[in-house]
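Hypothesis: this fold can be encoded by more than one sequence.
Test: take the structure tokens below, design a sequence, compare later.
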């Protein structure tokens, strides 16, 4: 890849409809869909979405060129989105949105028609992977390969029925239990053999990811599950020239962590401990009450500080900090999560100080704009001929996927710079380094 020529990348125009396929018609996905439909009708604003609201500075600071991102790169429009999905329950998106209790009933009623039309297809599910849910709307026939084929048939039917020529899949399903990559995940051949033998190491989310890639559909993972972060599926994505990204939307507490910790490090302030606890009462909270599912979440939530603070480079400041994350299921709160952080820091000569953060957030309200941006950017990446892991989309994830041997970039400001520079690179604009010496010549 030649960065010096700065030739614009050839990007196919976003013609026709863009299909959005979502495993998991729950709180996040219905808040996303209802939100887009409300925004289309002028009922609300797409707050939190870079693709809809953010500008991008081009050229020198004196040039005064700051177009909207959506005018700078050719993105699909909101009116072009059509939706489909799978769930282990039969509720259509209107019923699911009502049950999720994220949005007010009055708003949901205004978009009842498009939401009611989204009826989930039967899901591929395995109890072992999500212990707290007991679904009834399932594909039960045959091997895991047969189930992958059934999902591919669903995708083909969806494309035909909606007339969309491009599609993106984004996992908004429940968090599956933690598992490490096994032998069956190492190569495409081993994975396909595993599908035929219904290898227990292959999770339902991996069957969706396989079906997505085999159908030429870019795939994103909004949950912390291993899913496509395995050699077999990453090889498949590259072979088939499909962009992918993940894992785990960076929304509440981890978002705050990636705002605060780069600031502490920038000022060379030390850290003795960071204790994070959460209460939430939605279905996600219920699933995360299971230790296996929580373990997946814990891994992605814990990984952030080590990478940002680099204890190996700054042992005096960050060599010994204690980091714990807890999530408690507390039904009265529903989707309105509360996340507390107690941060023990130290300054000049080691003098201790404390920071307390109490974030009364709304999980799905924070996640919905991320879903929209990921859908639009993944589709852009596909039309720009980009394949494999899209590291420039790390901005959206708690545990960004990277090439083997690369540590992930967690600092949200570096992630944003990377995202915007990738857009500049696509359009043949100068990358912005913030050197700025030319202003003083
Ligand atoms: N809301 C956030 O801020 C946030 C942040 C990061 C990650 N996430 C993750 O996003 C995912 C969705 O969150 P949510 O709040 O919408 O949860 P939710 O429980 O409301 O929705 C998940 C849906 O997935 C369905 N499901 C489970 N297994 C499935 C399968 N195999 N196939 C199809 N459907 C399946 C469930 O029935 C449920 O309807 C969770 O994994 C969550 O951890 C959410």
């Amino acid at each position: 890849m030649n960065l010096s020529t700065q030739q614009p990348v050839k990007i196919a125009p976003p013609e026709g409809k863009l299909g959005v396929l979502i495993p998991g018609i729950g709180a996040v996905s219905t808040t996303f869909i209802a939100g887009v439909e409300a925004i289309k009708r002028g009922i609300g604003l797409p707050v939190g979405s870079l693709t809809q609201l953010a500008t991008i500075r081009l050229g020198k600071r004196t040039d005064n060129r700051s177009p909207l991102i959506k005018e700078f790169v050719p993105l699909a429009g909101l009116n072009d989105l059509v939706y489909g999905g799978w769930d282990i329950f039969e509720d259509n998106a209107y019923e699911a949105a009502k049950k999720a209790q994220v949005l007010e009933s009055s708003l949901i009623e205004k978009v009842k028609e498009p939401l009611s039309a989204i009826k989930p297809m039967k899901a591929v599910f395995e109890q072992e992977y999500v212990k707290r849910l007991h679904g009834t709307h399932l594909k039960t026939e045959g091997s895991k390969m047969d189930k992958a084929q059934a999902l591919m048939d669903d995708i083909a039917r969806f494309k035909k029925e909606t007339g969309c020529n491009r599609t993106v899949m984004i996992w908004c399903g429940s968090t599956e239990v933690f598992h490490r990559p096994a032998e069956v995940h190492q190569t495409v051949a081993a994975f396909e053999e595993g599908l035929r033998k219904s290898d227990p190491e292959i999770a339902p989310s991996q069957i969706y990811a396989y079906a997505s890639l085999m159908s030429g559909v870019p795939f994103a993972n909004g949950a912390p599950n291993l899913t496509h972060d395995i050699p077999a599926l990453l090889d498949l994505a590259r072979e088939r020239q499909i962009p992918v990204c993940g894992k785990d939307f960076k929304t509440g507490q981890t978002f705050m962590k990636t705002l605060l910790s780069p600031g502490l490090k920038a000022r060379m302030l030390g850290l003795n401990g960071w204790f994070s606890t959460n209460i939430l009462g939605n279905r996600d909270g219920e699933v995360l009450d299971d230790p296996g599912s929580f373990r997946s979440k814990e891994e992605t939530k814990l990984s952030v500080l080590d990478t940002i603070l680099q204890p190996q480079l700054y042992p005096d400041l960050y060599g010994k900090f204690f980091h714990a994350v807890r999530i408690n299921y507390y039904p009265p709160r529903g989707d309105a999560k509360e996340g507390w952080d107690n941060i023990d820091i130290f300054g000049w000569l080691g003098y201790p100080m404390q920071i307390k953060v109490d974030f009364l957030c709304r999980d799905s309200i924070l996640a919905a704009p991320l879903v929209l941006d990921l859908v639009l950017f993944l589709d852009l990446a596909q039309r720009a001929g980009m394949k494999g892991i899209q590291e420039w989309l790390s901005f959206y994830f708690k545990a960004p996927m990277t090439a083997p041997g690369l540590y992930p970039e967690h600092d949200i400001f570096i992630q944003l710079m990377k995202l915007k520079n990738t857009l500049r690179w696509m359009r043949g604009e100068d990358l912005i380094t913030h050197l700025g010496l030319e202003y003083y010549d």
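Residues 253-360 form a domain with the Dihydrodipicolinate Reductase; domain 2 fold (CATH 3.30.360.10). DSSP finds 16 helices and eleven strands in the chain.
Hypothesis status: open.
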